[in-house]
Amino acid sequence: MGRGGEEPRVDVWSWRGLRLLAGQPVRSTPVVSSRAVACWSVCSPRAKAVVQQRPGGALVSTPLLVVVGCPSIDTLIHGDQRRESVGGAAFLTALAARRVGASVGLVARVPPCLPGRAGAAFGPGGIDRSGLTTVEGSLPSFTIRYDDQHRAVYGDVRAGVEQELTPQDIPEDWLRSARLLHLGSLSGSASQQLAFLAGLRQRGFEGLVSAGTYRRMIEQEPDQVESLLFQTDYFFMNREEAALLVPEGIPSSHRGVVCVTCGSSGVEIWEGGSVQRHATVAVDVVDATGAGDAFCGGFLGALTLGEEPVSVGMTVAREALSGLGADPLLNAVAEAMRPRVSVDRSQVQKLAVALGQRGSTDALDFCGFPFPERDDPIALECLAAATLHQYGFWLSDAGGWTEPMYGMANGRRWKGSDYIWQAFTRAAASDPTAFEPARMAGEPGLFEQIHTDDDGACPVPDLESHSRLHQAYGASLAARFPGGFAEVLGAAEAAAARGEATGVGPALSALLATLPGYAEDPMAKKANLLIVMLARRPEEFLPLSACETVGPIVDYHVMRGCLRTGLIRVLDPDLRRRLAKRSWVDAEEEQAIRDAAFEAVELVVAESGQTVAEVDGFLFTNGRSTCLEVQPPRCEDCGVGGVCARAGDLFQPIFRTTAY
């Protein structure tokens, strides 16, 4: 809404509205106050009656405000500057409503993992994600160009999976609990909005309905947009859109409330033939993207909280103007969220005692098929190349995990990482030149060729990323270490000898952090694994003490073990449900679980007196032999069954990454 010279005019000030305008902290948990103000000049009698039908003083387990519409991937153009941002009218509306403390859920169809930081908005204390349906396909996308007055002109518009949204996507319990439902500009189609509204009423929704629009929709479907205006309780548009849709003003037969944002002039509220004008205060505009949607979300959120909606809406809109795209609201919502998971310190102590009583265990020496035999001249190159491909050995669909990867080689069925190991080991024996940096760099199909199974196909999922990393790894070696990985190891030994690192292990870790396939993971799972392997091999490529310099090797077996033993407690009920269903999780959720697993293993190491290799090795081998993926856990055979939480329904986070 930009700049203006007057303070906002409101008819009823609430305590919360004053705190918002003063920039003081607002409530971040979805609690409905029993002292909520129930009188606003912009609320119709029906609105007051509907919104007040809610349990005073109770925690809300289902959202009071439901917003319909997908996040989008927007290309924002300001002059000669272009950048991509997560946006979408519905997503910004939901963010703004949550920012002011409303209980809000988003109904959308989304790809298996939300892009960018969009996932940070969902979870405990954030937007309820129970209305998200995972599908194959892409999110909507918009190209938005802004002039020097911060006015938006929409260019390329792609509807993506949003055009498939139907009222059946709304959870049944949401229809019963919600007091307000907002329809975003679904696929830029007023016809879809009208069809959704009709289906909503057929499903028995009796709450208030609001909707938004934008200029292109009015130009393409003026009659449908006008029909939507008359069928909703609240309607949101800007001044230019209002002039285009109703140039002579709202007809007297209209019974709802129309909110018209007027840029730097503030907001107008049209109702019953009257117009209330609310001026805004001056702000420095960084990015005008979504300010109108932010006003909409703040306004609707305030209604569900029983507070004065115009001042709250304008305040959160000003906040949206202070940064790029959805960033200001997304950051605020994410910061106010409660932890998704936590490390259980008491369970750490129990497991540490149990492992300590077991004593030191014989760690793997990574020698013998499917690994290279002792003194194999290509062993070092083979191990380094194979380790960078230790990730993603499972199949999936739109719902999540379906089964492990299997492949047939020489008449034997191999599972997951073992298929990768045997394929590289066979290649080392049959064609050692396959590990020359120049060949890896110059042959895009080399990885696929090495991993072709008995049926003539490559069973490895996400073949594109494996092929790309294999080629990039070879190119990096060819440019910097043309002698191959042996030269990398030699450089690490030289750096340690010069005192540039505390030992050859840390020196090698630093070099691996610069090589494609290893560099992408800040937690260095594959780098740590390779260092342990080289130290444990009978050739002693590294001193055994190098194992003591690595951090936890957190892969999905280790995370599954931490979740099932209770080292990690899942605090988010929806996340726990999806882990048990083996459904997709978002990047923020996966990172929270992985961080917790890393911390838990470090604590067990510190309290048990065992090494990282021993603790990590127990969780890994136990996960492959006892606490299984496909079959139910065999708890009676587990060495720590007496202290385990036995959360056997939990699964590792389902998330595609090249890290593990």
Overview of this protein structure:
- The chain has 660 residues and is of the alpha/beta class.
- It folds into three domains: 15-24 and 36-336, Ribokinase (UDP-N-acetylmuramoyl-L-alanine:D-glutamate ligase, 3-Layer(aba) Sandwich); 339-365 and 551-660, Endonuclease Iii, domain 2 (Orthogonal Bundle); 402-537, no CATH class.
- 39% of the residues lie in helices and 14% in strands.
- The chain contains 24 helices and 19 strands.
- The strands form five sheets. The protein has a nine-stranded mixed beta sheet, with helices on both faces. A four-stranded mixed beta sheet has the order 3-2-6-7.
- The chain starts with 14 loop residues before the first helix and ends in a 35-residue tail after the last helix.
- Residues 1-42 and 48-60 have low confidence and may be disordered.
Keywords:
660 residues, alpha/beta, UDP-N-acetylmuramoyl-L-alanine:D-glutamate ligase, Endonuclease Iii, domain 2, 3 domains, 9-stranded mixed beta sheet, 14% strand, elongated
Task: Write a brief structural summary.
It contains 24 helices and 19 strands. It has 660 residues and is α/β, with parallel strands linked by helices. It folds into 3 domains: 15-24 and 36-336, Ribokinase (UDP-N-acetylmuramoyl-L-alanine:D-glutamate ligase, 3-Layer(aba) Sandwich), CATH 3.40.1190; 339-365 and 551-660, Orthogonal Bundle (Endonuclease Iii, domain 2); 402-537, no CATH class.
Described by the principal axes of the CA atoms, the overall outline is elongated
**Which class of the largest domain in CATH terms?**
Alpha Beta
Look at the helices and sheets and give the structural class: alpha/beta
Average pLDDT number? 88
Would you report the number of β strands?
19
Count of domains = 3
